[in-house]
Amino acid sequence: IAVIVNPKNLVSKLTLKQVSKIYQGQITNWKEVGGEDRPIVCLSRETNSGTHVYFLETVVRLGDARSKALFSADTLLLPSSEGIIAEVRDNPNAIGYDGLGYVTNEVKVLALDNGNGYILPSAETVNNKSYPIARQLYMYTNGEPQGVIKDYIDWICSTEAQKFVLQLGFIPYYPYK
Questions:
Q1: Measured between alpha carbons, how far is 163 from 136 in angstroms, rounded to an integer?
Q2: What is the pLDDT of residues 105-157, one digit of tens each?
Q3: How far apart are CA 145 and CA 151, in angstroms?
Q4: Which residues lie below 8 Å from residue 6, measured CB to CB, with a gap of 6+?
Q5: 29, 58, 94, 109: which has the fewest C-beta neighbours closer than 10 Å?
Q6: How far is CA 177 from the centre of its chain?
Q7: Over 70: is that where the pLDDT of 45 sits?
Q8: Across the beta sheet with 108-109, what order do the strands follow?
């Protein structure tokens, strides 16, 4: 999951703790994190999004299962990845997050501190686990897959299909079958 800002924003890197504080409403101005004196506008996916839940648990709560931290009430909830991209593109004060495959060159991706330096998201940094906010996505079947369902899952996990995944900007499954 990439944390994104408008390309005109001077900020190019943040720590996870800073992102957490921004989304909790504890940091409210870009000047507090090295940017211009502008209010921060937080954007999130809606609460029924798996990306929203993962971001809440991993970033806002910093992986602490006991934490009760929540998104600031001022956070704007948007219904789609495209909506996040469009708002960040058009609003120089906005910060958002989105699946890496949805990120366009109309927004700027921030490097995040993983505890050992600032890292940008990429197939390499996600797979070597140096980028701090990445999650696995799963496919579930009703029992052991058979027939066309098995064929589809086998194809999805194949080297051929994973090349498409990478071309589309998503992170391929490693190791390939």
A1: 17
A2: 999 999 999 788 999 999 889 888 899 999 887 888 999 999 999 999 999 88
A3: 9
A4: 88, 89, 90, 91, 92, 93, 94, 107, 108
A5: 29
A6: 26
A7: yes
A8: 76-78, 41-45, 94-98, 2-5, 108-109
Mean pLDDT of 9-23: 98
Query: What is the distance between the alpha carbons of residues 69 and 127, in angstroms, rounded to a whole number?
Result: 28
Q: Compute the average pLDDT of residues 92-103.
A: 94
Beta bridge partners, 108, equal 5
What six digits make up the tokens of 156? 């999805």
Judged on CB neighbours under 10 Å (0-12, 13-18, 19+), 116 is exposed
- Give 18's DSSP letter: H
Confidence (pTM): 0.87
* pLDDT confidence of residue 177: 38
